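Write out the bound-state structure for iron/sulfur cluster.
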Amino acid sequence: MFRINEVFRSIQGEGPAIGQPATFIRFSGCNLSCVYCDTDHASCRPWRLEELLDEAARGPSRVIITGGEPLLAGEALVPLAAGLAGTGRKIDIETNGTISPPPDLPGFVDNFVVSPKLSNSENNPASRRLAAGLPPGFFKFVADDVADLDEAGLLAQEHPGRDIIVMPMATDPKAVIEKMKILREPVEARGWRLLPRLHVLLGLR
Ligand code: SF4
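---
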């Protein structure tokens, strides 16, 4: 059984697959407590593997495995990802990067999206330290100001070879736009990509 908070369809509002229709599988629970977290991931309903595969098979070709922190599910993610890939689904995993993924998992994943937590998350540094064994892919940083970009840059240097995405720390449309205006030039100067939170702009989940 998987500890699932919710399964729903929407368009991806963040990260490399932004704008694409997707089935979201949101795992319950997280090992961090970010001050800006706007996801209610506490409630839980048990889902069987076959139920999740059937639900995803009725939806779009992309599946976002998110949370909470999905890597808390450990090895159980491998048959889920393998089953989804077997039905032709493209899989994104969204993780805070503090838990090493099962070695066999990345081979089934299209986009491995790590959102390293900066000091602006107000988690203690030990709890938000990146785990060993994170595969290549994306770093997606939540930034409030230019100082956050400097901190993100240090992490990017320590973990080279990843595509860097920055998104604004904002939970309403006006703030998303205002912060993107502040961040645009300094993000561009670093050669990174600035993306909105499209679901916030459109009032979607
Ligand atoms: S890691 Fe993600 S789900 Fe967990 S508390 Fe932080 S923002 Fe929320």
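---
The radius of gyration is 16 Å.
The chain is about 25% helix and 25% strand.
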